[in-house]
Structure formats: structure tokens, C-alpha cells
């Protein structure tokens, strides 16, 4: 977790000589430092946002600082910075926050990072972002890396409700958002590294037919399976090829396939096929639900054991 304070950032800008009207544009530039080299950000500050070069360099002397709770004391010893009321308020807030995090035993997961700015204007206090340390962006590696930005972030905004409320009541607030797409992107990479396939359907049992003109029999079996609590499906084609049906099961990791044909109908049985091992077993129609539950349990135990072995090996 990277943590900073909006009031502290504003105080740094004031000490460095940034005009009040430039606080937010300069804050947006600082926010790019996690992915952009300082010389590029400095060029933006000076040539695009009209900041004096010496002011930009003074900002850099502050925002490159990062560390743990002891950085608060170092900043409190900066007489020029603590001449700003907002800086004192921010450092008191952070000192209390870090003390509480230490009591909870999680301060080792927190970095006090002065370049953290977050772009939204309504933040008034502590701001934070969560990153995955293994997948942080490294500017030296360029595009040849698996990396994402923050996977969660938020902060304090004590004035936002008052701006929307006709009575302008001051309501203290803090909020956070989670980067679901970024988290899923990393999970996909991790699963690929472990050679774990992603199951994209919930289907447990696929109903297939080995011959033509058995669509209604497949429909009847699906209805029976649904009524007994199974997640089942069948091909929508009237006469699907057997190979296509089995390949669908393999591609989508459907554990079991129930197969019906003319001979099975006459004998009052169906076949249960284990999609992975390709073993087939004949069961009576009136015993199908019970037998399927037994087979599903075996298949899931096998899958869990396989996943555990892969995780241990990797």
C-alpha cells in the first residue's frame, strides 16, 4: 500500500513556489511518476504547464522521497515545510495512521510515498493505492513485462457531500475502488504460468446423443437433470456430430457427459463418460441422478489433487 496526504502535497507545492492556480495541474503531472521518468515529467511541468525549472527541481527533491513511518519525523524537522499549517495537519494525520497500522502489525506492507498524488480534485486528506509488488511497472523494462498499475485506490474526501448537499453539511468520508479488470488480467497470467485452464461455463453434465433424431430425448434428459439439481446443457443443433459434442466438453472442461443412443433407449440405460479419462460406464435411467453425484465427487477430488500438485511443483 502506497500512502500520502493531499494536504502535504499541497504544502510541498506551496513551499516550492508553485502558484495556487497550478496545484492541480502539477499534482496530475506528479501522479505520472510511477510510470514516467522524472525528466519527462519535468519537461511537462516546465514547457507545458509553465513552471520555472528551479521550482520543478525543488518539487523533485521532495516527491522522490519514500519510506516508512520514520519519514514523518524527517519531514517534521523541515522548518520550511512545517511553516505551512496544512503540512503540520497532514503529518499529524499520517503519524497517527502509521501508529495505528503498526499496532495492527501491517506497517511492513505500507510505503509512505510522496509522489503519490491521485488525480481527483475532491480528496482532502490521506490518499492510498494498492499495488502488486511482483507486477509493478518497471520503466527500464519498457513493454517487455507483465505489469499493471495500482489494483485499488482511494482516499479521504470530507468536503464532497457538502458540495452536493443543499444544507452544505460537512460529512467526513473515505472511499476506495478496486481494479477488477487488472486483477483478472494478473490472475490469467498466473493461471497460464501454472498451466491451469480457466473454466468459462458452469456446466457439470453435458447431454449428448450418438445418433440422429434424438433431440427430444436429449431435451428430456436435460429436464430430468435440472430437476435433480445438476447444471446441464446440450447442443442446440438437431443432429450434432458426436465428435463435436465431445470436443465441446473437453474445450470447456465439462466434467461428465451423459450419452444416449438407440440401443441405450431400448435397454433403459444411458452412458456416463468421464471427459478427462474417456472412460464410459452404463447406468440405469432411474439411477442416473445418484450415480452422477458419485462420479462428480470423484472427478472433483481428482481435479483438486491435480491442482495441489501443480501448485506445489511451481
UniProtKB/TrEMBL annotation:
One Gene Ontology term, aspect cellular component: cytosol
Superkingdom in the source lineage: Eukaryota
Domain Class II Histidinyl-tRNA synthetase (HisRS)-like catalytic core: 3-183
InterPro entries: aa-tRNA-synth_II/BPL/LPL (IPR045864), Anticodon-bd (IPR004154), Anticodon-bd_dom_sf (IPR036621), HisRS-like_core (IPR041715), HisRS/HisZ (IPR004516), HisRS_anticodon (IPR033656)
CDD domains, A to Z: HisRS_anticodon (cd00859)
Residue ranges of every copy of the Anticodon-binding domain listed in the record: 204-293
Enzyme class at the top of the EC tree: ligase
A Pfam family it matches: tRNA-synt_His
Molecular functions per Gene Ontology: ATP binding; histidine-tRNA ligase activity; RNA binding
Alphabetized SUPFAM superfamilies for the sequence: Class II aaRS ABD-related, Class II aaRS and biotin synthetases
Gene Ontology biological-process annotations: histidyl-tRNA aminoacylation; mitochondrial translation
Catalytic activities: tRNA(His) + L-histidine + ATP = L-histidyl-tRNA(His) + AMP + diphosphate + H(+)
Enzyme nomenclature, EC number: 6.1.1.21
Family, similarity comment: Belongs to the class-II aminoacyl-tRNA synthetase family.
Protein name: histidine--tRNA ligase
Source organism: Adineta steineri
Amino acid at each position: 500500500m502506497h500512502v500520502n496526504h493531499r494536504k502535504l502535497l499541497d504544502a510541498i507545492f506551496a513551499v516550492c513556489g508553485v502558484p495556487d492556480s497550478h496545484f492541480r495541474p502539477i499534482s496530475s503531472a506528479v501522479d505520472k511518476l510511477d510510470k514516467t521518468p522524472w525528466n519527462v515529467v519535468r519537461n511537462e511541468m516546465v514547457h507545458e504547464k509553465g513552471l520555472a525549472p528551479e521550482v520543478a527541481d525543488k518539487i523533485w527533491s521532495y516527491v522522490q522521497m519514500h519510506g516508512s513511518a520514520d519519514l514523518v519525523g524527517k519531514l517534521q524537522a523541515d522548518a520550511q515545510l512545517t511553516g505551512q499549517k496544512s503540512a503540520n495537519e497532514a503529518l499529524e494525520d499520517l503519524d497517527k495512521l502509521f501508529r495505528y497500522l503498526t499496532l495492527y502489525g501491517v506497517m511492513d506492507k505500507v510505503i509512505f510515498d510522496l509522489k503519490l498524488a491521485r488525480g481527483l480534485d475532491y480528496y482532502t486528506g490521506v490518499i492510498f493505492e494498492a499495488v502488486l509488488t511482483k507486477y509493478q511497472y518497471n520503466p527500464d523494462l519498457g513493454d517487455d513485462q507483465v505489469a499493471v498499475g495500482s489494483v485499488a485506490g482511494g482516499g479521504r474526501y470530507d468536503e464532497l457531500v457538502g458540495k452536493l448537499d443543499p444544507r452544505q453539511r460537512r460529512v467526513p468520508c473515505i472511499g476506495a475502488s478496486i481494479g477488477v479488470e487488472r486483477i483478472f488480467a494478473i490472475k490469467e497470467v498466473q493461471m497460464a504460468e501454472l498451466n491451469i485452464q480457466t473454466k468459462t461455463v458452469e456446466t457439470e453434465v453435458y447431454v449428448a446423443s450418438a445418433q440422429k433424431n434424438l433431440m427430444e430425448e436429449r431435451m428430456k434428459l436435460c429436464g430430468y437433470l435440472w430437476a435433480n439439481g445438476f447444471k446441464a446443457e446440450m447442443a442446440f443443433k438437431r443432429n450434432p456430430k458426436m465428435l463435436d459434442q465431445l470436443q465441446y466438453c473437453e474445450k470447456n472442461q465439462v466434467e461428465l457427459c451423459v450419452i444416449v443412443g438407440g440401443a441405450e433407449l431400448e435397454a433403459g440405460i444411458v452412458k456416463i463418460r468421464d471427459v478427462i479419462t474417456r472412460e464410459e460406464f452404463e447406468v440405469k435411467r432411474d439411477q442416473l441422478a445418484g450415480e452422477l453425484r458419485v462420479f462428480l465427487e470423484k472427478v472433483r477430488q481428482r481435479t483438486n489433487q491435480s491442482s495441489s500438485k501443480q501448485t506445489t511443483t511451481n
